[in-house]
Specification:
alpha+beta; Jelly Rolls; Arc Repressor Mutant, subunit A; nine-stranded antiparallel beta sheet; 9 helices; 26% strand
């Protein structure tokens, strides 16, 4: 992977059949596919990202990328933080990347605002998944909100699928195991509440954690900081990528 500076934006060139294993960025950002393509898998689904695709990643978004036989060139823009909630993840096909790339040469912020405007059009659907996998994922997301710690094996059997097979197919599609999928959505919900000023104890209760210490442990695992430090933080000056 080769990185090329473009104002405050960052352009990356990826080799054919390259793979970026699970990683996350502390800042939200917008990826603009300039050429080639790749598949991105995350707790938000699996997407085939070809030329003219825009992908808005919220802060701390965990994902992996598998590049095509052509490789890819991707322009990464700093996301305007005021424009969308931290949970926002959106993919759009057929964007006007020529205009966005031209703006990025002069003003990365203007390019990001233009890209965000493009993202307001119809969102691209994720790659199709089996009905049982969609139902299982929905149950895990609901579990992350209400806290009724469902047994993953039971969820698979409820869908008439062998637990071992379900775990393999789940990870192939989303890039993460069912337990990590549930953790990521639970921390995403906790992040939303903490940003709104909800106390750590109340957040732990609403998100179904066993206790406050369990929330702190998972929150630090995902964000790299405690809920208290996150809540008092006003700005992060640099992006730190953490690979798993």
């Amino acid at each position: 992977m080769k990185q090329i500076a473009r104002s405050c934006a960052k352009e990356t060139r990826h080799r054919p059949n390259d793979c970026l294993s699970l990683h996350r960025h502390d800042h939200g950002y917008i990826a603009v596919v300039l050429d080639g393509g790749y598949e991105e898998a995350s707790v938000d689904g699996r997407y085939s990202c070809m030329v003219s695709t825009l992908i808005w990643h919220p802060p701390f978004h965990l994902h992996e990328n598998r590049f095509s036989v052509e490789g890819a060139t991707v322009l990464n823009l700093p996301a305007p933080t005021y424009a969308a909630p931290p949970e926002f993840y959106r993919v759009r096909f057929g964007a006007d990347i020529t205009r966005i790339a031209a703006l990025a040469d002069k003003d990365a912020v203007a390019a990001a605002i233009t890209a965000f405007a493009e993202l307001q059009f119809s969102a691209a659907p994720a790659n199709p998944a089996p009905d049982w996998l969609t139902a299982m994922a929905q149950a895990l997301r609901q579990d992350s909100r209400v806290g009724a710690s469902s047994l993953i094996g039971k969820l698979a059997k409820d869908q008439g699928v062998c637990p071992e097979h379900a775990a393999r197919r789940f990870k192939t599609y989303f890039g993460v195991s069912p337990s990590i999928y549930r953790r990521e959505h639970r921390v995403r919900r906790a992040t939303h509440l903490i940003r709104r000023g909800v106390t750590c104890a109340e957040t732990a209760y609403r998100c179904g954690y066993a206790d406050q210490s369990h929330l702190v442990k998972e929150f630090r695992m995902v964000t790299g900081r405690t809920p208290g430090a996150f809540q008092s933080m006003e700005h992060i000056n640099c992006v730190q990528d953490r690979v798993f």
